[in-house]
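Our preliminary data section would be incomplete without showing what the modeling component actually yields. Below, a chain of 143 amino acids is followed by its predicted structure, encoded as tokens that our downstream tools consume directly.
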Amino acid sequence: MMKALTFTLLFVVCTLQIAKAQFDDKHMLYANKVQKFGKLKRIGTTMAAGGAIMTATGIVLVSRADWYTTYSSNGSSQLSTDDPDGITGYYLTMIGLPITIGGVVLAIIGNKKEKQYMRKLEDFSAGYFQYKGTHGITIRLRL
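Predicted structure:
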């Protein structure tokens, strides 16, 4: 009898929570923010990976290029190349580094904010658990 009452109460609470969520403006706002910051996190991760690949490719091309040293009349020296791989590698590195840094920043911000709004969405939860032969229900309410 007690189990039936408990499950009935749990069912009513879950149903009320679902009904409340459909009409709650804050819930919809938080759900939209979770999607928005999740997208920001994915874009940042993609940018970081693409920028890292560009930077690594650029470094490899620069290291493989033929470099030579020219000396000026006042005794200073300058390292330069006519190798197209060296020039391409230089530009790939200069473009890839800011893209990597920007992507990492966007991914960090997106991840942090997504988790923040996800926690706000989980203001109430109820469930059933089974652990090492023990059964029970859990109810969590965050205010």
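The chain has a mean pLDDT of 84. The chain has one domain: 35-141. Preliminary results of this kind motivate Aim 1 of the renewal.
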